[in-house]
Specification:
The chain is an alpha+beta fold and 146 residues long. The protein has a single domain, classed as GSPII I/J protein-like (Pantoate--beta-alanine Ligase, Chain: A,domain 2), CATH 3.30.1300. Helix content is 40%, strand content 32%.
Length: 146
């Protein structure tokens, strides 16, 4: 009696492999989608940080120009970097409060009204999304103020 030697895969084994690979792809597809979305968000956050840093630098340069302290006022602008996202950048100025007891500075939360200190807040966000991606603030003083 002769025995036939079989090599290779049977049709049933191939079908099982195809089904397992298909199920794996279906399970992993949402994971890949989240990774791609997350990478876009990181890029937007980085761009927002750069835009906030740029505006902070511009504001601080203005501070040292002639009458610069008085020229730092509320400002809003939309910025198109040529990508799919439009950014909103907001500069708001509040009154600053100096606590002589402990030497600390804080934002008063009210509109600036000729105090010696200005609390400058810069927010950068994606247009149409309510909450900002980045928020930076600093306290500046008039010349001669402690």
């Amino acid at each position: 009696m002769t025995t036939k030697s079989s090599s290779g895969f049977s049709l049933l084994e191939l079908i099982i492999v195809i089904v397992v690979v298909g199920i794996s792809v279906v399970i992993l597809l949402p994971v890949f989608s989240r990774v791609i979305t997350s990478s876009h968000r990181v890029s937007e956050l980085h761009q927002g940080q750069l835009l906030a840093q740029e505006r902070m630098g511009q504001m601080l340069q203005t501070r040292w120009a002639d009458d610069g302290f008085n020229n730092i006022v509320d400002d809003n602008e939309s910025i198109d970097l040529g990508g799919p996202v439009l950014f909103d950048r907001e500069l708001s100025v509040q009154g600053g409060v100096f606590n002589s007891g402990n030497g600390s500075l804080s934002c008063s939360g009210s509109a600036y009204n000729s105090e010696a200190y200005k609390c400058v807040i810069i927010k950068v966000g994606i247009a149409g999304e309510g909450s900002p991606l980045v928020k930076r603030w600093t306290m500046i003083s008039r010349e001669g103020s402690p």
